[in-house]
Amino acid sequence: MAQISPRLAHAYFNEISAGSAVPLDLDGLLHMVDLRRRSYVVIGDIALRCFKNKSKWTYDERDIRRGAQEYADFRLDIDDRVEVQLPAYRDHNEHAPEGRADWRREIASWLFWQARQKHQEGRPYEEWDDSWKRIGVGGLPGELTWDEFVAARSGTRLRKSIANTRPLELMTFSGGSLSLPRGYAELLDRWEQVEEDLVARARTCEGCAAQGPRWGSWRTQSRFGYVTLCPPCSGAAFQRYTGHLGGVLYDSPRVRGTRADDYLCRLCAEIRAAAWDHCHDHGFLRGPLCGSCNTFEGKSHPRNFLEDREGAALHLLECRGCLDRRTLPRRYHVAIVQKYLEGTEHHRHRGRRCKRRPSVRHVELAHGAQRFELECWRHGARWPKDVTVPETASLVQDFVDQALAIAQPDAVVPAARAGSETTTPA
């Protein structure tokens, strides 16, 4: 089996399938956004397996050439068309169960989005209504016309893809109805079934055959690709991290010589770890994290991480530098102050203290103070608030002490500064 890189696979597939009757979008071979979910890239109704080889993802060259040749030979009668029935609009929380593949609803979502844009553009908020959600007499949502849709999508039209193909290139609108070539519509129907089969297979725990969540939260990286293990099977297969590398610098030989994927994720404690997490402010190791938790800590909004991940603050305090100084990394400081201001700051309305929590937006750090803008949406009140750097440090210290007290209620938490007293913004 000859293994080739994604870039080479893209070049081979593009060259062999050139001139295909099906307009292809082969960027999926490069980006592989659903790799964790199902370990395959699907081009139309053809599933191409991805392999991990020496820490790099590859394809089997024979699969690439075989799949590309199928599209080179694909025959499509453009004149044999079927009508595309648009499903009714559904709000985000009413989407198909667990995000099932549905090409008709995907096309409909493009049209509904454009209809909403037309309805709201140039109108004051008070005149917005739900008329754009209904199919109009012309057969499209709201007051949208096909020419307007095509013109609005002229810049992105070719990039809108389903199953790594471009349906808008083959779609026509006539007599109040949308249509596609029958052979292409049948191809997309087969794609839906291929997707369902792949997802069902990837949801199955390799240890006990239990069915996991559809979106792949049981999926974890291994040296040979993604595998599916339920939390009990992961707990039996991998070690729990006990903090034995606490106080060790991330770039030390001890860390480089120990594999993170021998352990369970320290934060979610459900799937295999993928990397060693460390504090970028002080350089100390925090522990092994799975890819999802590691990405969430590094790229999510700091407040989301602190509030949505149980034990997040204590994980950050695994850094010896943060623990000794009773602080958290600098990127979390603004989020802690924002939460404090939301709970303590109020404006006065008609002589009375407003009980509503204001929204708090960070503006800048200038002249030794963090500047925030607070706003009460109900009364239209807006006011600034400055929190000095020492006050910010004190609030962060309070937050850390509270987190430690909850985790160890009988422990005595030493002060970060001997003889210091907590100060809060005036």
The shape, in one word, is flat
Contiguous helical run count:
15
How many domains comprise the coordinates? Answer: 4
Could you tell me the number of beta strands?
Answer: 16
Q: Could you describe the largest sheet, including whether it forms a barrel?
A: 4 strands, antiparallel
How much β-strand is present in the residues? 15-25%
Low-confidence stretches: 414-426
- The residue-averaged pLDDT reads 88
Radius of gyration: 27 Å
Helix content estimate: 25-40%
Question: How are the strands of the largest sheet arranged?
Answer: 1-4-3-2
Distance between the termini: 69 Å
Helix/sheet category: alpha+beta
Describe the structure in your own words:
With 426 residues, the protein is of the alpha+beta class. It is built from 15 helices and 16 strands. A hairpin with a 2-residue loop joins strand 14 and strand 15 (369-376). The longest helix has 21 residues, at 182-202.
